[in-house]
Amino acid sequence: MSLITSLSVQQLRKAAALKEKMQSLEKELNQLLGSPVASAAGAAPKTKKKFTMSAAAKAKISAAAKLRWAKVRASKAAAKPASKPVVKKAKGKMSAAAKAKLSAKMKALWAARKAAKK
């Protein structure tokens, strides 16, 4: 790299011109021979084209996946025996009488604790 920095502007221009001439001669030689020969400097690597899927192909794949999942769900439903619907008990509902009874019991307990502290 230090070799390039020590060259004069005229020498750099001449080197660039020679390089361009070499590349054009290689290209001409490749055309005459009919086969692309890799250049000494190496050709730039070709970038792969990004794979894109058509809308029709996406729809086809989606439909097939939905069909597979429908079959899976159907087999699970068939394997599960039909049972009676489970009736859930209501949670947290207390009758007014039960509330009053609990309230009286807790008041008595708190009164006893308060009396014990004195």
List keywords for this structure.
118 residues
Overview of this protein structure:
Helices cover 64% and strands 0% of the residues. It has 118 residues and is mainly alpha-helical. The chain has a domain at 2-33. The longest helix is centred in the first third of the chain and has 25 residues, at 9-33. The protein starts with a helix and ends with a helix.
Q: What's the helix and strand layout?
A:
Layout: H1 2-5, H2 9-33, H3 55-79, H4 96-117
Summarize it.
With 118 residues, this protein is mainly alpha-helical. The protein has four helices and no strands.
Q: Count of DSSP E strands?
A: 0
Distance between termini?
Answer: 95 Å
Computed Rg:
44 Å
The computed structural class is: mainly alpha
Please state roughly what percent of the residues sit in beta strands, choosing from under 5%, 5-15%, 15-25%, 25-35%, 35-45% or over 45%.
under 5%
| Average pLDDT reading | 85
Uncertain stretches of 5 or more adjacent residues:
none
Provide the helix percentage: 55-70%
Q: Could you say which overall geometry the principal axes of the C-alpha atoms support?
A: elongated
Work out the oligomeric state of the chains in this entry: single chain
The ordered H/E elements are HHHH
Helix count? 4
Q: Major sheet, described briefly?
A: none
